Amino acid sequence: MKSNRERAKTKEPDGLRRGAGRSLSNNAKNKEEMSAVDTAKLVHDLQVHQIELEMQNEVLRKAQAEIEKSRSRYFDLYDFAPIGYFTFDQKGMILEANLAGAKLLNIERSLLLRSPFIRFVSPESRTTFHLHLKKVFLTGTKEICELNLIKKGDNSFYASLESISSKDNEGHSIQCRSAIIDITERKQAEEALRKAHDQVRFFASQCLTAQERERKLIAGEIHDSIGASLAATQFRVEEVIKKVSENRPQTMAVLRGILPMLQEVIQEARRIQMALRPPMLDDIGILATINWFCRQFESTYPHIHIRQEVNIEESEVPDSLKTVIYRVLQEAMNNIAKHSKADRVSLLLQKMAGVIELGINDNGQGFDLEEASFRKGSAKGLGLDSMRERAELSGGSYSIETSKGTGTVIKATWLIEQLSS
Asked: For the purposes of burial, counting CB atoms within 10 Å of the CB of 32, is it exposed (0-12), middle (13-18) or buried (19 or more)?
């Protein structure tokens, strides 16, 4: 049998003859009237036209060969790509799939075509796939989602689906082309990392709880043992002073000199006890403790004025949060006293829209937050990590806004719903 190319070559002279016949019939002169010169010119023109057609056919043949080679390369790349490629219609039917896609689902490619992709999507991911497909056709932009897929044999795996629509000549989306990648290992690594992170958070929270318990114990020991012993010693010295006769003035002077020293030690022991953990935090509550702390702070730093705004009831603050609020406040105020050069501080504690918020705002000199975050050890010195850890480990969020010359705003917030769950 003749090939298409041979049949085309056979037809070419016939086409030229028909064209020549038309040219002759349209010519004003009939065949009998044409001169030899006219006939020779016509033959020459037809020969030139034939050569032009043969050259065009050769160009077309080469172009067709290149197209076939490109098409072959495309299918090789498509079929043997390491990523699964699928083409869906608007109903999610599989129109095309490459070998990697068939391998992902552990099924022959011929069995995939014209079948609904949803049969390979786990029940909990089907809504996600439907919404993904709908969004691709609706927006025409690239969309990404993650699905739990089921391969033949009921083995499931996690996959990332990256899709874009193909359009017709009028710009309407007609197909969805998707690349599917197995991300099971990444998901497993993320889950392992999340569990490790949760364990670290748990142990850190336990450490803070143990630290507070130890502080409470030491504060109690200072009050009950050292404080009581110092008070008893002071009482005994005062009793001895009363009993020493006036004829022993030197002894009286020594004993009277001891009293201020004892009083100073008693006050220092009380200060250490309160710094470790004020007993009123457990006995009276956080609101009274904040009020006491602000009075003590202004007494120690009289050049700094604190404006308090408390819009929350004691009963509305969970017990687990009271120590956290106090420690964040304590650290923030210590930083203000040491570093800020501020003379005004605004303290806010409020409950609003299901959120408990602690805010501390000073008018000091501020600092470069990025520079401070890169400091190491004692050079860091601002307690930023301590405040952040306490807020986040208790289920809240923490933020700080500052720059040189603008003061500092510290904010910690907790969702009440999460605290109660």
From this structure: exposed
